[in-house]
């Protein structure tokens, strides 16, 4: 069987496979224990050698399955049959998971070799154990990826899963389903899931991943929102093919990362169009890259996009968090290496040059990366925007903080400053304070308020704000507390409120005040 086939959905055989994988402890914890901490950590860095050494000559079921499906190495068919005793070799071949091992195969070892035709590895959340099927990785094959490669579990997919809110949802859409990672997570809190992809090959892998997990998906092929036009969803998630790619023959157009459009047009189109499929109160979350031309900031770019959205489509609340930025050369180095070409090779140099020329043609100075959360208002009110930077570590998972942040920002949009002052706010349990001063000084010169979770914000607090946070325990309304502080410091009450209310709104939005 060719390594470019896709797995077959056969409910009976998949049930046998599931039983064998479970019995072998081919799970996240089982694999980590079998490999040990060093080999496990190396494999997460896409360094296979320690894991290969740890599974060399493996006879135990978990070790055989790691070597076969995770590392992409042939295993003796006798060992494979022992590792899959219920499914058997014939069942594994019928599912399209294994090639070789039949009559007439080379007799070394005596019963021949079995080779994986796809990557199959464990995946989990706090309550579920799953497996994800995808194409064999570059680490496994040692070759550059084909353009229709279906990506497995990667950094982008786990980032999106971490940031996604987990409210119960009536109907969800996984836009660009790939191998099915996001759909697995959605199955834990959504009544029904539609999953789309432009790649027929990706849909085949997603179907197998879902069947192995016992998850029902409505799978549809098509570009962006075309397959769901006229429908509505409570939640839309997308890890779209957002990589900015030159439209030139010098750069392979990988389906999993390139949407076939110039520049950042695919993310821009998603921003403009996604409101059309959100029901009132519905939320869309996705990852993206955006170009920042010389002389502009990333916030300028996003302000333009959101203005276009409000003018041409459905006006949405927007919370955009930029997590990283790169200059054109850094970006070119990252993505010209991603497909498997080696730095310094003629192929790599051609791609590198093509990226630099593409960015130069549009005057791009930096490229931003981040997480986008859009919400369709339930009522006829003005929308809100938060454009934040969070380049460092954040809470994991971030979904609960995003959910709380959406609710807080929506409440703030619907309430006046007087209503904010009427609340007896409390500092969140994860908020701490640092005071810095010159040696021997009576008073601190800098007061920093730190958030332990969420975006891990650090706020420099002035005297009045620090005083307020010191008494914000849910007892006094903000108005009463600020008026008392103004009296103690001999300040005008109105001026104090005017200064502090915007700061209170920021702290409430990000969860430092509750």
TrEMBL record:
InterPro entries (UniProt xref): DNA_methylase_N6_adenine_CS (IPR002052), DUF7059 (IPR055487), Euk-Arch_PrmC-MTase (IPR052190), SAM-dependent_MTases_sf (IPR029063), Small_mtfrase_dom (IPR007848)
Source organism, top-level taxon: Bacteria
PROSITE patterns cross-referenced by the UniProt entry: N6_MTASE
Domain Methyltransferase small: 158-246
Gene Ontology CC: eRF1 methyltransferase complex
Record Gene3D superfamilies: Vaccinia Virus protein VP39
GO biological process annotation, one example: methylation
The keyword Transferase is annotated on this UniProt entry: yes
GO molecular function: N-methyltransferase activity; nucleic acid binding; protein methyltransferase activity; S-adenosylmethionine-dependent methyltransferase activity
The protein, known as: Methyltransferase family protein
Family according to the record: Belongs to the eukaryotic/archaeal PrmC-related family.
A family per Pfam: MTS
UniProt entry keywords in alphabetical sequence: Methyltransferase, S-adenosyl-L-methionine, Transferase
PANTHER family membership: METHYLTRANSFERASE N6AMT1
Domain DUF7059 stretches: 23-103
